[in-house]
Amino acid sequence: QVQLVESGGGSVQAGGSLKLSCAASGDGARTYCMGWFRQAPGKEREGVATVDSDGNTKYADSVKGRFTISKDNARKILTLQMNSLEPEDTATYYCAAAWRQVIGGRLTCPTYEMVRLYIHWGQGTQVAVSS
Fold first, then answer.
1. Beta-strand pair 2-7/67-72
2. What are phi and psi of 25, to 5 degrees?
3. What are phi and psi of 101, to 5 degrees?
4. Rounded CA separation 73/31 (Å)
């Protein structure tokens, strides 16, 4: 079992930046696949970015080039640096963890599209971007 606690949300004007952090604790916290997800009011939860145990990253097209996900395995902290924020980025952001899965015949981390394979979730942190 792993526990996740997010921090760093807030309000910012369009074009601004925010950095989200997620502190992981519990058994196996260093070996989980990790990701950031978000849910805007009235919309389904969607993947933003994921990072595997080797540091390989994947991003949703909507945030590519603006957001950077990183993982400090020693400190068990996951971060999301968000630059050039847009009003469309307004949402509650969640940190989540998953075990590696057999996907396409090989053991690998679920990517950001595979929301349902992420089984441990933080409580979320709100991000509001005004125009």
1. unpaired
2. -145, 160
3. -125, 160
4. 8
Give the whole-angstrom CA distance, residue 29 versus residue 83.
27
With H, G, I as helix, E, B as strand and everything else as coil, classify residue 13.
strand
Please give the pLDDT value at position 93. 98
Sign, Cα dihedral of 88, 91, 93, 98: negative
Q: How far apart are CA 109 and CA 104, in angstroms?
A: 11
Q: Which pairing describes strands 57-59 and 2-7: parallel, antiparallel, or unpaired? A: unpaired
At residue 125, what is the residue type?
A: T
Q: For 115, list phi and psi in degrees, rounded to 5.
A: -55, -40
Closest CA to 9 of 106, 129, 127, 113: 127
Give the C-alpha distances (Å, rounded to integers) separating 6 from 21, 96, 103. 6, 10, 28
Alpha-carbon span 78 to 123, nearest angstrom? 15
Residue 82 to residue 19: CA distance in whole angstroms: 6
Per-residue pLDDT tens over the stretch 93-121: 999 999 998 989 999 999 999 999 999 99
With a cut of 70, which residues of the chain have pLDDT below it?
Answer: 28-30
